[in-house]
Amino acid sequence: MNEELDFESLRTGAGIFEVLSKAKALERAGKTILHFEIGQPDFPTPTHVKEAAKQALDDNFTGYVAAAGVLELRQAIQNEIESTRGFRPTVEQILVTPGANPGIYFTLRAIVSHHTDEVIYSDPSFPTYGAVLNYLGCKKKPIPLKEENKFRLDPDDIESTITKNTKVVIINSPMNPTGSVMEQDEINRVAELAEEHDFYLLTDEIYSKMTYDQKFYSPSIRDQTKERTIILDGFSKAYNMTGWRLGYAIAPERIMDRMGLLISTTVSCVTSFIQKAGISALTGPQTDLHANMQAFRKRRDAIVKGLNKIPGFSCLTPQGAFYAFPNIRKTGMSSKELADFLLNNSGVACLPGTIFGANGEGYLRFSYATDVTTIQQAISQIKEALV
Ligand SMILES: Cc1ncc(COP(=O)(O)O)c(C=O)c1O
Q1: What pLDDT score does 122 carry?
Q2: How far does the centroid of ligand 1 lie from the alpha carbon of residue 208, in Å?
Q3: Tens digits of residue pLDDT in 86-145
Q4: pLDDT confidence band for 20 (50 / 70 / 90)
Q5: What is the DSSP pairing of strand 348-349 with strand 166-171?
Q6: 3-state SS assignment for residue 203
Q7: I need a labelling partner for 174 at 20 to 30 A (CA). Which of 209, 240, 290, 331 fits?
Q8: What is the DSSP track for 152-193?
Q9: Ligand 1 atom showing the smallest separation from residue 246 Cα
Q10: Shortest-distance Cα residue to atom 14 of ligand 1
Q11: What's 48-283's CATH class?
Q12: How far is CA 236 from the centre of its chain?
């Protein structure tokens, strides 16, 4: 492992917040900015979820709880996994985390132990993966995603990247930043490769409830998280709970034991009354989620249609999550140049694809967590600025 940690190597994960603060600075200077940069649903947390947290506070459910999480929440997660993934993990395999983001760190920290260990993941991908791998000082093996493959991670590319040092493969479907969703047979093939070559499979399923046409499919069905598959999921995206900091991991017991130790020595436990809200989110009515996905579908259709009308842009239709990832190469500008230009000249904040990896060059990411009118307004402002 690294003897001296290069903290600069962690900055990859902070790129999103840098754009956000530039946009906020412009707003303070009196400009109106249309926000497409942050991956946060704009809907409120469902009322019954907020009520559950309030009730927990009134009941003085405010003390420390088990490091692994409140048993009732872990049981609700057991039921959730059974109904959505088709198997039932034990409660000992479930860890409640302060969001999925730290779950990425806890998982990789629990598995990766040597600087020769290799971790395969996609480029572009959610920046935390690369930042955590930098922090751990292991070998990063990013696989470039291809637009002609609709940004789906190709199992053949994974196969040709595997070596005897491959320790973990990370997949994320539906995916940030491209909105791509892997096919069932592709996911099965990755799970087979994990078995054949004996590596761990970290499947980041934070967008599991956010597919448009395809049914969500998890590779965990194969080993039922008993051997090598680790699932990460959470409440931020599906239940509009980004600020609540609530997620969970499901892992083989020997890995979970380590992750439990990591959580108890760092955060002690996830906030008690927030966990009560999590129970309500999973077991209560799912009407808000369904209504939000209908709204997201309309927004997706509006933004894809609009982006495709901007000269120099072309955009695939995302199959999940709430991100559009247009190709902007024909504008002649780099991703960073164009994102800066759009922020300063059209009042639209979006992210350069390079925040998600070098292979994101030539793309922008728009988080369409905003209403159709704002989307249409942004498209016309971009068009105007580019003429
Ligand atoms: C792929 C991916 N994984 C994990 C996270 C982290 O989510 P949480 O709010 O649960 O920490 C995000 C958030 O944007 C994400 O896009």
Answers
A1: 98
A2: 12
A3: 999 999 999 999 999 999 999 999 999 999 999 999 999 999 999 999 999 999 999 999
A4: confident
A5: unpaired
A6: strand
A7: 331
A8: PPPHHHHHHH--TTEEEEEE-SS-TTT-----HHHHHHHHHH
A9: 10
A10: 39
A11: alpha beta
A12: 10
Report the pLDDT value the prediction gives residue 12, as an integer from 0 to 100: 67
The pLDDT confidence band at residue 9, using thresholds 50, 70 and 90, is confident
Where are the domains positioned within the chain? 7-44+287-386, 48-283
DSSP notation for 229-262: EEEEEESTTTTT-GGG--EEEE--HHHHHHHHHH
Lining residues, ligand 1, CB within 6 Å: 39, 99-101, 126, 172, 176, 204, 206, 234, 236, 242, 247
Q: What is the pLDDT of residues 260-270, one digit of tens each?
A: 999 999 999 99
| 206 CA distance to ligand 1 middle (Å) | 6
- What is the fold of 7-44+287-386? Aspartate Aminotransferase, domain 1 (3.90.1150)
**Closest atom of ligand 1 relative to the 40 alpha carbon:** 14
Dihedral sign for Cα 170, 175, 177, 180, please: positive
Tell how far the Cα of 202 is from the centroid of ligand 1, in angstroms: 14
| Mutation probe of ligand 1 site: the residue of 16, 77, 101, 355 with most atoms within 8 A of C-beta | 101
Q: Is 360 in a helix, a strand, or coil?
A: helix
Beta-strand relationship, 200-204 and 229-234: parallel
Average pLDDT, the chain: 96
Entry pTM: 0.96
